[in-house]
Amino acid sequence: LPRPPPTRLITLSARARFILASAFGVGPAAGARRRPPARRAGGWATALLWIAGLQMMLGALVAGLDAGRGYTDWPLMAGRLVPEAIWSLDPWWRNFLENVATTQFLHRMNAYLLLALAVWSAWKFRGDRGRGFALTAGLVLGQGCLGVLTLLNAAPVGLSLAHQALGTVVLLSAVRLVWATRLTAHLGLAAGLADVDKAPAHG
């Protein structure tokens, strides 16, 4: 079967996951009562969601280019931190869409960023009210380990599908976090307005 263009694969993947994430985010909001996490967590949850979404799109691009079989060593790529072929295509912007070295390098770097942010936010909001962050961090760590295992085995179909499936779970976990922290913000606003209403009038 002919392989679809990588950009087409990104579009289809992003559309499917956006629909799934939207449906997943609507479900909990239908009257569920939950204990919200600590305040000021919304920015962290939103950042996790955006970076997880970017990682999914980069993963689709890697899959479309079959880039997972181009560099099968880790943590280096062909013995180098930055592969030599990263800027081998002209014009330069083609490297971000068609270069196997560039797409896999970006997928790796974004994965490190996502893991660092997930672990830091789990520590920052540790405790009973931050269990959602801890769960997301655990999922991201598991996804990273599965990604390395998939890479070292030259991306066989079974491991590749498992890697994509767990990536979707990570994305849904981030959606859940954003919903929970948005609830926190709404509760904080409502409490503030109630305090204003109860304040005695002066003058």
Any descriptors?
68% helix, 6 helices, elongated, 0% strand, 203 residues, mainly alpha
Q: Care to count the β-strands?
A: 0
Mean of all residue-level pLDDT scores: 79
- The number of helical elements comes to 6
Low-confidence stretches: 28-36, 185-197
First CA to last CA: what distance?
A: 79 Å
Proportion in β-strands: under 5%
Shape estimate: elongated
Tell me the radius of gyration: 20 Å
* Structural class by helix and strand composition: mainly alpha
Query: Can you summarize the main beta sheet?
Result: none
Order of helices and strands: HHHHHH
- Indicate the percent of residues in helices: 55-70%
Give a written overview of the molecule.
- The protein has 203 residues and is an all-alpha fold.
- It is 68% helix and 0% strand.
- The chain is built from six helices and no strands.
- It has helices at 6-26, 42-65, 95-98, 100-124, 131-152, 157-198.
- Helix 5 (131-152) runs antiparallel to helix 6 (157-198).
- The chain is elongated, with a radius of gyration of 20 Å.
What's the short version?
With 203 residues, the protein is mostly helical. The chain has helices spanning 6-26, 42-65, 95-98, 100-124, 131-152, 157-198.
SSE layout and pairing:
Blueprint: H1 6-26, H2 42-65, H3 95-98, H4 100-124, H5 131-152, H6 157-198
Helix pairs in contact: 1-2, 1-6, 2-4, 2-6, 4-5, 5-6
